[in-house]
Structure formats: C-alpha cells, structure tokens
Prior knowledge:
82 residues; mainly alpha; two-stranded parallel ribbon
Amino acid sequence: MAKTRENSSLTTEKPRIATKFVTQDEIALRAYQIYLERGGAPGNELEDWMEAERQLVGDNGKLGENGNGKARRKPKVNSAAA
C-alpha cells in the first residue's frame, strides 16, 4: 500500500521534559495560605513569601519569567584538607 501525502507529512515529536516554572502569582497564593495557616498574624510577610518560594521552587524547580530570576542553589563549600 502506498503512503498518502497526509500520512507522510505527519511528524513524530520528541516528548518534552516537564519543567515546572513558578510564577509570582503562585508564590503569592502559597504565601497567603501560609499566612492563614499561622493564624493570620501580621508582620511576617517576607518570611511567608520566602517559605512559599522555597516550597514551590524546591531544589529542581525554576522561577518563571514573572519570578525573581534564577532558582537559589546551595552554596559550594570548599573544605580545607587537614
């Protein structure tokens, strides 16, 4: 059976690796949830935001274009040999 033009024009795409990009809106929502979980006491906005960002970004996640830039990485520790 001969191939038709329709069948031969179809291409198989490689599956994309899922990469989670976190937006500021997602961080803000999670920070608000943290705020509510601790009873809604004011004065810890920065801590709530940092905790939300840490939870959502994690070690392998990345901030999206609306985020604050690159994901934080653990600093390298150079230990001196004794």
